[in-house]
Structures are given as C-alpha cells and as structure tokens.
Write a structure and sequence with these properties.
With 430 residues, the protein is mainly α. It has 16 helices and no strands.
C-alpha cells in the first residue's frame, strides 16, 4: 500500500471532487439530446449514463498516461502544485455550470495544471509538443470533425427513412438514440474519468508514493470511476437544458446521428491517448445534426457564448491555478487558506444557483414547446422600425365613458333617465 502524507490525501480528495464536478458538468454530453427528444425520462437517462461512465473508466489508461507522464515534468512537481491546479479546474467547472455553459472540464483541468506548473517550476516544465499535439490540435479539430460527420449522418438517416412510416421510423430512431447515448456515456467514462486517474497518479508520483512512470493503481481507477458516475447521476440539469434545447431543436433522427458521431470520435481519440474534450465533440455533433436537417437551425448566439467559454477555459483555469500555487508556496497555512477559499467559493456558487432551480422536472420543454428563438437580426429589427405600429387595444371600460357621435348612431341622444328609470335594470344593448 502506498504511503500517504496529509497533503497527498488532500490532493486525492480534491481530485475526486473535481471528478464529481466533471460528472454532473458533462452529463449533458451523453444525455441532453436523448432527454430533449423524449427518448428517455430525465432520471432514467442520468442513471443509465452513470453506470456506463463507471464501466468506461476501466476500458483504457492511455489518456491518464498522457497527463501523468507526458504533459508536465513529473520530477519537478510537488503535491501542492496539483492541488492548486485542481482548485482552478473546480472553480471554472462550477462557474460555467452556474450559467449553463457547456465548457470543457478537460481543458479546465489541463489549464489549471499548466498554470500551477509554470508558477512552480517555470515554462520549461511544460512539454509544449505534447500540449500542442494531444491537447490543442484535438480541441480545434474535434468539433469540426464531429460536426461534419453529424451533418452527413443526419442526411443519410433522413434519406434511408424517407419511405418508412412516420411513427415506425420515429420509434426506431428513439431506440437507436438510446443505444448511441449509452455509447457516448461509455466513451465519456473512458476519456474523462482517465483525466482524474492521471492527475491522482501524478500526485502519487510527486509525493513519492509510487515510482515515476507507473500506471494508475486499481484503486485509483475504481475511485475515479465511482466519483464521475455519482456526479453524472446527480445530473447537470442547467447544461443539459442548454445542450438539448438551447443550441438547436432536435428530432430523434438528429439525436441518433449526433450521438453516434460523437461516440465514434471520442472512443477513437481515447485509444490514441488524446486528452479530448467530450464537450467540444458533442457540441460540434449537435450543431452538425441541426444543420443536417432541411429547415433545421442552429442558435448561433448560444453557440457563440459557448465558443467564448471554450477559448477562455484553459487560460482562466491556468490563471487561478497559478494564483493558488503562489499562495500554497507560502507554507501549510497557505495551503489551508486556498482550501478554505475553494470551499467558500463553491458554497457561494451553489447558493446562487438556488435562486433559480433547474432539475429533472423542468429541464426539458413541455410538449409542443421549444426553446427560445434566436434574437432578431439587424434586418428584422430594421423592418420592424419602419412598419406601422399595430392599433392599440381599447382599454376596458373606455366605451362607457366616451359616448358615440350622434351621426354615427343615426339618432338624437336620449334625455337623462328619470329616477325610477335609473333604478331599473339596464336594457340589453342592440
């Protein structure tokens, strides 16, 4: 059994906390389209995804080795550096979850690790070739490849099912969508759980608990799988709503095509050791599926906000990680101060989220409802500005206070009513 110090135990617990946030932050990647099309009920969908995330954690360790052996110089890393990296990743995950933006948990973790490593050991401790080939290039290519594949798959799906009866075709696509969603969940566990395995393994190496170059121990694989599965079951309902209905309106054929394309890309990347963002892949495939259907639309304002979050993720987490490392470098009290800050900030974010609760009861649109439409463009606003305004409705009771002209009625106004007449019920108007 590995020998543990207090700081090493803190790092392991914090890494599992990050894995938990990764689970509920990325549940949308697997189940948002399935929930939005009605293929599965929300609670059933997240339970299925949780189980398959756990199974997927045992399929490969290539991504874990990329993080623990390739990205940074493991000989110059202290456990405090990894703790600081995790602080940056967790806070970014929680902030983007609060606003419902599907950002990359993977890039948050890698950004925090890079920032903390540079603050501790300098730029030379980061392996730039690995960062470019196994992190940056896949980040750019993944959503494009998945999106193009989803466009082709969507059009092929509609072409094949054109002669099939509507109800039967829709039922078949719903079944296929459930299967493909399971595949995405399996792929997510294979790729994302490994990142926590890698960071814990790196911490064990830095703390002298295991030898440099070691693969993740079995207990690390199991604990990382359980943490991400639990987080997945909790359900990141805010991001599920954005991914399922805020980006585009999906039909079962499109959901099936999007998830199949995403699962293929994620599984292939996992076995190649690419630290891929499943969020980027699934978002790209959902947009591709939206464009693949004739008459389908993508809400580019939402896509634009997501793109901004993607660009900011790695540097923002790196800045927080570097700042946390600077404080932990002051000694044990500095590490304790960072831990208190992490707990307090996380509690504050959770409390703010309670002001507008999103859960399984309101994550999907009601029957016949859709997400908010794209804001009007410049041309639409210009046309509205020069069009005559509609006639204002007459307020209630106004006709009782303004008598109609005599010429319009064709009669002279009646004389005032006598007291006896006024006391009787009014006659019906003709």
């Amino acid at each position: 059994m590995e020998s543990f110090s207090l700081i090493l135990a803190i790092v392991v617990v914090t890494a599992l906390a990050f894995d938990f946030t990764n689970g509920f932050h990325d549940t949308a990647n697997a189940m948002a389209t399935t929930i939005s099309t009605g293929a599965l009920k929300p609670k059933v969908a997240v339970a299925m995804s949780a189980v398959l995330n756990l199974v997927g954690a045992f399929l490969s360790v290539e991504v874990a080795n990329t993080i623990s052996k390739g990205l940074v110089d493991e000989t110059g890393i202290r456990p405090e550096v990894i703790f600081a990296a995790l602080v940056g990743a967790i806070l970014w995950n929680l902030l983007t979850w609060l606003v419902g933006l599907p950002s990359s948990s993977s890039h948050a973790l890698l950004g925090g690790l890079i920032g903390a490593t540079i603050a501790s050991a300098g730029v030379g401790a980061v392996h730039g070739d690995v960062l470019i080939t196994k992190v940056m290039l896949p980040a750019v290519a993944a959503p494009v490849v998945a999106g193009v594949a989803a466009v082709a798959a969507t059009r092929l799906s509609y072409t094949i099912g054109r002669k099939t009866e509507g109800k039967a075709a829709e039922k078949g696509h719903r079944v296929g969508q459930i299967a493909s969603a399971g595949l995405v969940s399996l792929a997510h566990g294979t790729n994302d759980a490994q990142k926590t395995m890698g960071i814990i393994t790196l911490a064990l190496i830095a703390g002298g608990a295991i030898a440099p170059g070691s693969n993740p121990p079995t207990w690390v694989i199991l604990s990382a799988g359980l943490a991400i599965a639990l987080g997945t079951y909790i359900g990141g309902w805010r991001i599920i709503r954005t991914m399922g209905t805020g980006l585009t309106d999906l039909r079962p054929q499109q959901g099936f095509a999007a998830q199949t394309s995403a699962a293929a890309a994620i599984l292939a990347s996992s076995h190649l050791g690419f630290s891929l963002s499943t969020t980027h892949v699934v978002s790209g495939s959902v947009m591709g599926a939206g464009l693949g259907r004739k008459g389908g639309v993508v809400r580019w304002s939402t896509a634009g906000r997501m793109a901004v979050a993607w660009v900011l993720t790695l540097p923002a987490a790196a800045v927080v990680g570097a700042g946390a490392e600077a404080v932990t470098g002051l000694g044990d009290w500095g590490t304790a101060l960072v831990a208190v800050f992490l707990v307090a900030a996380s509690a504050a974010i959770w409390k703010i989220s309670r002001r507008q609760v999103v859960d399984h009861t309101n994550v999907a649109p009601a029957t016949g409802a859709t997400a908010a439409e794209e804001p009007a463009g410049v041309v639409t606003q210009a046309i509205a500005a020069v069009s005559p305004p509609p006639a204002a409705p007459v307020p209630d009771g106004l006709t009782a206070t303004i008598p109609a002209p005599a010429s319009a009625l064709g009669a002279v106004p009646a004389p005032p009513a006598s007291p006896a007449t006024a006391a009787s019920p009014p006659a019906a108007a003709v």
